[in-house]
Amino acid sequence: MERELSENARLAALSDPSTLPARASRPLRFTVTANDSHSSARAGTLTLPHGVVKTPDFMPVGTNASVKSLDPDDLHAIGAQMILANTYHLYLRPGHVRIQRLGGLNKFSAWNKPMLTDSGGFQVVSLGPLMRIREIGARFRSHLDGSDHLFTPERSVEIQEALGPDIAVAFDQPVMPGSTERRDVLRAMQRTHRWAVRSLRAHSQGDQALFGIAQGGIDPELRAESANYIRSLPFEGINLGGLAGDETPEERNTAVEATIAALDGDHRVRYLMGLGSPLDLLEAVLRGVDLFDSVLPARVARNGQAWVTGGRFNLRNARHLDEDQPLDASCDCTTCRRFSRAYLAHLFRAEELLGYRLLTIHNLRHLSAFMGAIRLALRSGTLAAELPRLRAAAGGPGTPRLGVGDEPFEESARGAMRPRYAEDARLRGVNRQRATAREGRE
Asked: Which listed residue, 306, 343, 406, 441, has the most CB atoms within 10 A of its CB?
């Protein structure tokens, strides 16, 4: 009992923001270059050690230091300015120490532009029954082999410092936004605040920025409270976490509005984690968000879903087998310049890997060009006049369906915070234990 009280006192001391040492300036500069007079939308430039990012911008997700099926030349061609890598996955494989020894994430992946790593909090919480959260951190079993691990704010920061991205993210506790009891949302939010202080205290890499995460589910009061707390801390940027899950677009928009209102007058960059469909991005930009990421455009590409001007369609549908035209006549990606819908539909039916690659290139270029059009409208002061066209291009309300069966079920940008790895990990853990037992008998 005495040891437990001592540990609680130690963690409480580490979580006290009043004892944080002064934070040295980091090589991150965010400048707002244009504001929309009819909304909270803004354009800006984010200067980082590996380059400049023009905002608002969408970051492709390279979970394992690789955007699935694409190489850095592809990413340059689609207009990617910054990519995201995942701390949890890279910690487990190949290991942050190995990546550090090999020169850091940028050298390891041959990507010469900015990179951001998330903290691993979402992936750990997604492990469901394979994870237990305590004040010290989250203990979990690897989805790869069932081995035991502990992620604390300090450990997450240590791993991200070793990986070496331009931007690291504080460790947090996300929850299902739409289906979690308010008391549990409050408890997770308060723990996220304590872990934010501990993350700041642990972060010492001078050439790396650290972003804090505001939580609060879909409750506007909690969202405002969390945003006010995180803005009081010396982070270089502020994330909106715990959304793009099981909430409705209306609930999400209300939560974003409450957060941005609480950040009024704060000039740091704002990053909404996990949002990836064109219309959702447009609505969040109008509410004042600068950065986004999601696996969604690449994930649905692997299922045959093409994003085009005015909506989307499914290449697995038979009617596309005879269409001798590009996916989108207005798109300048290599897929649309060189290949027909008929050829792509054939590749998906034949389960050729080239189909996944070509459609991933297209979907990500489509989203990059869409964000570029928003930036151009902001800089030229024409966003309000352009909104009907942009909403129609995004497939917004009132846009005609492209064809029967071409609107497959919606897939959440972050898997609706489902425990995606839990079942596989449980099976792998059992197999690992059986193998260990066999080795012992032999």
From this structure: 306
Which pLDDT tens digit goes with each residue over 198-247? Answer: 999 999 999 999 999 999 999 999 999 999 999 999 999 999 999 988 89
* 65/205 same-domain check: yes
Q: Is residue 1 domain-resident?
A: no
Which DSSP string do the residues of 121-132 spell out, in sequence order? Answer: HHHHHTTGGGEE
Concerning whether 118 is annotated as a catalytic residue, the answer is yes
Q: Among residues 172, 280, 293, 328, which one is catalytic? A: 293
Cα 21 from chain centre: 29
User: Are residues 331 and 257 part of one domain?
Assistant: no
Is 293 marked active-site?
yes
Same domain, 159 and 215: yes
Q: Are residues 120 and 225 in the same domain?
A: yes
Full domain range(s) for residue 336: 302-393
Three-class DSSP category at 36: coil
Question: Which of 36, 57, 74, 118 is the catalytic position?
Answer: 118
Which value, in Å, is the radius of gyration of the alpha carbons in the chain? Answer: 22
Tens digits of residue pLDDT in 106-135: 999 999 999 999 998 888 878 888 889 999
The count of structural domains within the chain is: 2
